[in-house]
Every structure is written in structure tokens, then in C-alpha cells.
Amino acid sequence: MTAPLILCVEDEPSLRDDITFELQEAGYIVAAAADAREALAFLESRRPDLILCDILMPGMDGRGFISHLRKARSDLDDVPFVFLTALSSRQHVIDGRIAGADDYLTKPIDYDLLRATIESRLNRIQQLRAMPGDRSGLTALDRLAIGVVLLNANGGVVHANPLARCLSDEVGIALSGGVTASGKDGRKLSALVAALISDERVAPAGLRLDNGCHLMVLGMSLPARAHHDDAVAMLILSSGDSQPPLDNAILGQLFDLTPMEAQVACLLAEGLRRNQIADRLAISGTTVAFHLRNIFAKTGVQRQAELVALVLSVPLARSVI
């Protein structure tokens, strides 16, 4: 069997040579490119099994390179893309995931971790290609700016997109096999998953994890024959940090809320208490309570915390910035 072909895009010659040597020693075929221009020229005639790419490069940087590929080369959507960079802050990692990267390795390069990451990504792609059915839906999920986890009837993870794995790793949620965490958060997640995969279809339910990272989780059962392969439920993960403003109109459309109900839901999700909402909208506390009862009925949630998590977890409820 032909060894996997790795395209390494790195502008620093010594590091590029080191990566090439290490991967060749591990049995891979390596094509090296000094910048995005050389990489694009290579891709005109060859299809790699995985792409390693530095972010900070002259000319087109790594984010520009992957953005170009996602727009112009849909035939490469299933090729794993791994960023190599010295930018290791939480926001840089999330930005890289949102840009479409499957993984993110920081410099100086840990070569044991590099080899393990490549092997894991290649094995995962091989497994997906061996599975029956159309996998295009999973490719689409991997490009979303929210975390998505698909669950089977036993609560096992059918698929988790890159951002879901990034957010889960940050807060100590394991996605190997099933969805597990320790302590109070673990009990919350277990209860949510158990409800979603039960025989009785349940309304969408949300929760906010008490881990200091403001992680919101929305769970929903998938309609019969509308899910991908054996997935029966879905978790949507989103970080409460640096969220763009909520869009009242879109939120209203999603849950059939009146304009006033949408405003109340958005203000509640932004952290305002009921009396503060009343002051902001120049209405009485009784009117706020009336609107909240209607919102609960239309969204199918029963508690205020679940409503907040639901609103914050729905990506379309935010204006595009």
C-alpha cells in the first residue's frame, strides 16, 4: 500500500526540513512548500492525504490559504488540515477551528504529538470513507462555527466536528465513545443525553455548564429518517465568550415569538434580571412574566436557565458580523 502523502506548508526552511525528515522517518511521503503559492501549485496536480500549514507566512497566510481551499477546492474538503503556529491563545485556537482547520499544533513542535495527530486524523478519515452512505453532511458540519456532536441510540458519539472537540477539551468533556465529564457537569450531561436518546421524543433542552468557561449546550432529538446514518440526537456546543449581539428578528422567526417576546428572551440571555428587563422595555414586571410564560410554551423549555442556554446555543440567533 502506498504511504500517505503529507503536504507541509512552512516558510521557515530549517523547520520545514525538520518536519520533512521526521515524517519521512515515520514512513510518510512528504511534499514541502515554502508558502501558499507553492502549495496551490502543488495541489493543481497532486492530492495529499493531509495538509500541515503554518499560519504566519508571507503573502497569503495560513487562514487565507485554508479559506481559499474551502471556497475553490471543494474536492479537498475531506483532506485533514492541521495548523502549525506559535499563536497558542484560546481565541487563536478557536479562530483556527472556525476557519476550517481540523487540528492545531503549537510551536515548538512536539514531534511525538505531531505524528500521533497525523495518524489519528488519517485513521479517522479512513473510517469515515469506509462507512456506508453519503458523508457530505458531516463535511458540512465540520465547517460550522459552532460545536456539533451527533449521538446514536446508545449515547455514543457518531461524529463531533472540530470546534466541538476544541470546546470539549477546554472544559474537560470526553467525546471518546460517549459524552462524559466529571462532577456536577458530568451528571447534567448524562441526564441530558439520556433524555435525548429515550424512546419518547423530547423538546430541545439546554444547559449552562458551571465550569467558569461559559459553555452552553443545546440538545435535541433528530426526526426519524432525517438524521445521518445512526445518529438519533444532536448536541450543539457554544462558548459564551465574545458572542456577537443577538438578533431579535431571527430569534422570533425560529421560535414563532412576537417582537416583544423576542426582545425579552434576548435581554434575559444577555444577563438582565426580570426587573431590569422591565425597566429597559418600559413595561411592568407582570408583563415580563406574561411574556416569559409564552416564551417557555413556544420554545418547549421549563426553566429560565434552560431558556438562556437555548437562546445562546442557537447560532442563527446572532447577527453576522
In short:
With 321 residues, the chain is an alpha/beta fold. The protein is built from 13 helices and ten strands.
Protein described:
The chain is of the alpha/beta class. The protein folds into three domains: 5-130, Rossmann fold, CATH 3.40.50.2300; 136-239, 2-Layer Sandwich (Beta-Lactamase); 248-317, Winged helix-like DNA-binding domain superfamily/Winged helix DNA-binding domain (Arc Repressor Mutant, subunit A, Orthogonal Bundle), CATH 1.10.10. The chain has 13 helices and ten strands. It has a five-stranded parallel β-sheet with strand order 2-1-3-4-5, with helices on both faces. The chain has a five-stranded antiparallel β-sheet with strand order 7-6-10-9-8, sandwiched between helices. The longest helix has 20 residues, at 111-130. The radius of gyration is 22 Å and the shape is elongated. 36% of the residues are buried.
Give the helices and strands, then pairings.
Blueprint: E1 5-9, H1 13-25, E2 29-33, H2 36-43, E3 50-54, H3 62-72, E4 81-85, H4 90-99, E5 103-106, H5 111-130, H6 136-142, E6 147-151, E7 157-160, H7 162-171, H8 183-196, E8 205-208, E9 215-221, E10 233-239, H9 248-255, H10 259-269, H11 274-281, H12 285-299, H13 304-313
Parallel strand pairs: 1-2, 1-3, 3-4, 4-5
Antiparallel strand pairs: 6-7, 6-10, 8-9, 9-10
